[in-house]
Design goal:
2 helices
Length: 137
Amino acid sequence: MKWMWDLLDDDSDENGTKNKDGQKNPQTGKNTEKNNKSNTKMKEEKNKQNKTKTNESDRKNSEAVKQQTNGEKKKEDEWMKKEKEKKEQEQKAKVDKKEHEQKAEVDKKRKEQDENLKKAQNEKGRKKKEQDERERK
């Protein structure tokens, strides 16, 4: 009795007679070479179909990866835009603050000048009044 693994390794047909390419199989009466060729063609066809399926699945996977990558890139681009806008707003706020401080300083100087001018005019007016009063006396 033959063991299973012996049967797997054995090239013989069911009767136990080994056939070489070109010999007829005693059971079927068919040429084993033709069977081998047709089997080879069938295997090649299967391999071709499997490759096509693999190529399709690879293509689908690569498209999925591209979409995922594109999605990540879009998210990154949006984040970069937000960061850029944030920096621009901060820069604008700094510039606005400086301008405001400069305007405030200019206004303060103007106010001081106006006050000094008023004081000078008041002093001038007071001196004139005093002089007029002296002249009247």
